[in-house]
């Protein structure tokens, strides 16, 4: 049972949290319902098509596309973790969520986000090996290595996320139980606690440094090495071809990290901005990247684009 404490001579025991749609305009939540529903349908359709195409086409059973399939699974997991509460808030005005359900959603949101960050790092290594050692590419990255890499990235995300629910569960919540978004995040729940949250803040800082910040540094180093290798190629045509293989991955990196940096900047420096701006940034941060990744890879990767066109032409 959740902690029970004395607050203003009355017993307070928060068993639920309240999610927020459009701040101050709950009666207009339905305005966001249709766009969000469309985004989720596109996310499910796009990522499932990517998975189906990679699975059924043996020519796509290469490291680059296998990593892409893991990325698609991560996007699907993130969409399924957030879809019930976000659509519930905007479509049905179902804003109440139990404490346990909120902890569970928070765990899976962060798990899939950190997993996706790790997969982007693995894909950067994949592009580096493909450009530096094209003749030994398949030998250096067999399917067993890709499978172990995917499991290692998932295990890292699980280990980083595992303490979060327990660190929050020990806190008393005696004031407001209204969250800032239509889904649950660690930092959002922590700020509602009426106790010392130093341990939680240190945990969040260490987790970000050991995952997202470290991943960004590794990706940047990988692309410095890629550019160094590409610039050493004599033929302009071969340089262009090598760089073109990285375009989709660079777009995926920007799609993932730019909204994350944007919402962090808005929370830190944009407190004077309208609450609607905060709401829009929060929804973009969580709902847009999973829908854009399959679109980018379908448009920018010729092999996937051709397979998808053939699949629909047959039908």
Topology diagram in text:
Blueprint: E1 5-7, E2 10-12, E3 16-18, H1 30-56, H2 63-92, E4 96-98, H3 99-132, H4 137-140, H5 143-161, H6 163-169, H7 186-190, H8 198-231, H9 236-269, H10 275-300, H11 302-314
Antiparallel strand pairs: 1-2, 3-4
Helix pairs in contact: 1-2, 1-10, 1-11, 2-3, 2-10, 3-5, 3-6, 3-8, 3-9, 9-10, 10-11
Write a short abstract of this structure.
The chain is 74% helix and 4% strand.
What does it look like?
The termini are far apart. This protein has a single domain (14-127, 138-314), classed as Up-down Bundle (Rhopdopsin 7-helix transmembrane proteins). The chain is built from eleven helices and four strands, in the order βββααβααααααααα. 74% of the residues lie in helices and 4% in strands. A hairpin with a 2-residue loop joins β1 and β2. Mean pLDDT is 86; it is low at 1-13. With 315 residues, it is mainly alpha-helical. This is Olfactory receptor 51H1-like. The chain crosses the membrane at residues 31-54, 66-91, 97-125, 145-168, 201-226, 247-269, 275-297. Its main location: membrane.
């Amino acid at each position: 049972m959740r902690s029970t404490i004395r607050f203003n001579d009355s017993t307070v025991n928060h068993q639920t949290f309240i999610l927020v749609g459009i701040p101050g305009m709950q009666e207009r939540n339905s305005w966001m319902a249709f766009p969000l529903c469309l985004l989720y349908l596109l996310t499910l359709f796009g990522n499932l098509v990517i998975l189906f195409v990679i699975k059924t086409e043996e020519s796509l059973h290469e490291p680059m596309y296998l990593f892409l399939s893991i990325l698609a699974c991560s996007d699907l997991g993130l969409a399924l973790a957030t879809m019930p509460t976000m659509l519930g808030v905007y479509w049905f005005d179902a804003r109440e969520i139990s404490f346990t359900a909120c902890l569970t959603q928070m765990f899976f949101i962060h798990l899939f986000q950190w997993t996706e960050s790790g997969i982007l790092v693995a894909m950067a290594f994949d592009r580096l090996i493909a450009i530096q050692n094209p003749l030994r590419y398949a030998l250096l990255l067999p399917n067993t290595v890709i499978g172990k890499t995917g499991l290692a990235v998932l295990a890292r995300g699980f280990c980083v996320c595992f303490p979060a629910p327990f660190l929050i569960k020990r806190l008393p919540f005696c004031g407001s139980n209204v969250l800032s978004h239509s889904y649950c995040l660690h930092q959002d729940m922590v700020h509602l606690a009426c106790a010392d949250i130093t341990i939680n803040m240190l945990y969040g800082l260490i987790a970000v440094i050991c995952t997202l910040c470290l991943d960004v540094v590794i990706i940047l180093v990988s692309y410095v090495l890629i550019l160094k290798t590409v610039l050493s190629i004599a033929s302009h045509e071969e340089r262009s071809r090598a760089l073109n293989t990285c375009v989709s991955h660079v777009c995926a990196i920007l799609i993932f990290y730019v909204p994350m940096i944007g919402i962090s900047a808005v929370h830190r420096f944009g407190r004077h901005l309208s609450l609607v701006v905060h709401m829009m940034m929060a929804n973009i941060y969580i709902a847009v990247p999973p829908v854009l990744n399959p679109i980018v890879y379908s448009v920018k990767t010729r092999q996937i684009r051709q397979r998808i066109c053939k699949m629909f032409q047959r039908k």
